[in-house]
């Protein structure tokens, strides 16, 4: 495994946190779908699954192909920014869904 920079390390942690929040959201939305059966809840569940898979793929790339980002601090910062924005969005969704 190539050594990770601070940017990629933080991006990796954010991907892990995104997965945890999406699992939590998925559990809430499965329960709501069983109770109410609305298509919107099923759509939210599908969203959580797709985004969790995307984060799992990102983690795989961070650990197995970190060298793709190794030569460019700009690319590393962009990856971190996208993971950070995604984390903020999923966190907002989690807070709203838990109320």
Folded structure, characterized:
- Keywords: Membrane, Transmembrane, Transmembrane helix.
- Pfam families: DUF8036 (PF26119).
- The chain crosses the membrane at residues 6-30, 42-63, 75-96.
- The chain has one domain (6-98).
- Helix content is 88%, strand content 0%.
- The chain contains 4 helices and no strands.
- The longest helix has 31 residues, at 6-36.
Describe what is shown at a glance.
The chain has 4 helices and no strands. The chain has 99 residues and is mainly α.
Give short descriptive properties of this protein.
99 residues; mainly alpha; 0% strand; DUF8036; transmembrane helix; membrane
What separation lies between the terminal Cα atoms? Answer: 41 Å
- Uncertain parts: none
Task: Specify the structural class.
Answer: mainly alpha
Radius of gyration: 15 Å
Helix content: over 70%
Q: Which descriptor suits the 3D outline? A: elongated
The topology string of helices and strands comes to: HHHH
Report strand %: under 5%
Question: What about the largest sheet?
Answer: none
Whole-number mean pLDDT: 90
Can you count the beta strands?
Answer: 0
Keywords: Membrane, Transmembrane, Transmembrane helix
InterPro entries: DUF8036
Topology:
Elements: H1 6-36, H2 39-64, H3 67-70, H4 73-98
Helix pairs in contact: 1-2, 1-4
């Amino acid at each position: 495994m190539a050594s990770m920079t601070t940017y990629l390390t933080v991006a990796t942690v954010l991907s892990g946190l995104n997965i945890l929040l999406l699992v939590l959201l998925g559990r809430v939305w499965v329960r709501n779908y069983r109770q109410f059966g609305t298509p919107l809840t099923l759509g939210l569940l599908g969203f959580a699954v797709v985004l969790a898979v995307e984060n799992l793929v990102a983690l795989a790339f961070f650990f197995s192909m970190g060298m793709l980002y190794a030569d460019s601090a700009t690319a590393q910062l962009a990856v971190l920014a996208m993971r950070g924005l995604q984390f903020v969005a999923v966190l907002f969704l989690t807070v709203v869904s838990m109320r």
